[in-house]
């Protein structure tokens, strides 16, 4: 167990280094002048000269990246060029808002995905099993901005039930956040539910065709007990990975949906940082998102390793 955890941590750290290095090189290679983009059109020639001298005095790209990495390891992600505040301070409220939205979406998506996935597997090749996979196919293939726009059209414009955009500041309390996140939460939940339900259905079908399920049925075990005691526990083990990945996607991904709804989370902040060429903020966001993916997948791998005796046997 310890050796497996160390290997996964090593891979995770290598992923963090690769992602931040790629982002550093990508932002530095963008056309145009970073100082002009960060200071704006009203910047004076003196301010632009000081900014360019400050950047050039920091050394070449390799030196700046090494210095940033050393500071990031101590928790200092630098200072935003545009916001004139520490990157960590800019990230904190946005990360909290993203966690709230992802938690609400996960609370909708994953229970529904498990129930519908198991139901489709139990009713294999019937009307339910034909309709639900069609729903998942739509959720997996339709672009995020299309599904988000359709939700706004139906629930906000036609029906008037839910707000179309989130008109709240980034530091709003949770009591103001919850009433306005229904629409983006539904959009995120629809996408995550589609991917998760497909995996749960596939895993449940594999377990239903296993020998121990057939033996339980031959012994006369009621179907309800077969599902609860034999099918569900074994079907959920392989599904842990996809659930963890989808939760990481809710936290770190699907930037388009958060921008469509103007939600003050990491998605909106990412778009603003990239458009302003705010390199410290972009790197801080990239490191945070990569760390979220690594942490969630690491927990999922360790959980699967601990709960599945076959994995422990293979590793040993």
Structure description:
- This protein has 316 residues and is mainly α.
- The protein folds into 2 domains: 2-72, no CATH class; 91-315, MetI-like fold.
- It contains 15 helices and no strands.
- The protein has helices at residues 2-28, 34-39, 45-56, 61-72, 87-122, 127-141, 144-158, 174-177, 182-208, 211-218, 223-252, 255-260, 266-275, 279-307, 309-315.
- Helix 6 (127-141) packs across helix 9, helix 9 (182-208) packs across helix 11 (223-252) and helix 10 (211-218) runs antiparallel to helix 11 (223-252).
- The protein is globular and about 85 Å long.
- The model has no long low-confidence stretch (mean pLDDT 78).
Structure keywords:
316 residues, mainly alpha, MetI-like fold
Concise overview:
The chain is mainly alpha-helical and 316 residues long. It has 15 helices and no strands. It folds into two domains: 71 residues, no CATH class; 225 residues, MetI-like (MetI-like fold, Orthogonal Bundle).
């Amino acid at each position: 167990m310890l050796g497996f955890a160390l290997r996964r941590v090593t891979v995770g750290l290598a992923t963090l280094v690769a992602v931040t290095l790629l982002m550093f090189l990508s932002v530095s290679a963008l056309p145009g002048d970073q100082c002009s983009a960060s200071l704006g059109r009203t910047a004076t020639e003196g301010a632009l000269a000081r900014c360019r001298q400050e950047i050039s005095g920091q050394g070449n790209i390799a030196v700046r990246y090494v210095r940033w990495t050393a500071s990031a390891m101590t928790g200092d992600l630098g200072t935003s060029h545009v916001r004139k505040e520490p990157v960590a301070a800019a990230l904190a409220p946005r990360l909290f808002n993203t966690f709230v939205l992802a938690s609400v979406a996960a609370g909708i998506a994953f229970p529904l995905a498990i129930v519908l996935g198991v139901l489709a597997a139990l009713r294999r090749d019937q009307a339910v099993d034909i309709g639900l996979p069609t729903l998942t196919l739509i959720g997996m293939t339709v672009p995020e901005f299309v599904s988000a726009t359709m939700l706004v059209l139906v629930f906000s414009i036609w029906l008037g039930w839910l707000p179309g955009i989130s008109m709240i500041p980034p530091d709003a309390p949770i009591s103001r956040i919850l009433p306005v996140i229904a629409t983006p939460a539904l959009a995120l939940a629809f996408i995550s539910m589609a991917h998760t339900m497909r995996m749960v259905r596939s895993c449940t079908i594999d377990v239903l065709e296993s020998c121990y399920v057939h033996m339980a049925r031959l012994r006369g075990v009621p179907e309800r007990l077969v599902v609860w005691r034999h099918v569900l526990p074994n079907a959920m083990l392989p599904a842990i990975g996809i659930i963890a990945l989808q939760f990481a996607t809710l936290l770190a991904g699907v930037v388009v949906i958060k921008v469509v709804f103007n939600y003050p989370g990491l998605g909106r902040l990412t778009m603003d940082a990239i458009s302003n060429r705010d390199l410290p903020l972009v790197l801080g966001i990239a490191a945070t998102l990569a760390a979220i993916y690594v942490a969630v997948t690491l927990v999922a791998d360790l959980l699967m390793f601990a709960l599945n005796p076959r994995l422990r046997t293979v590793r040993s």
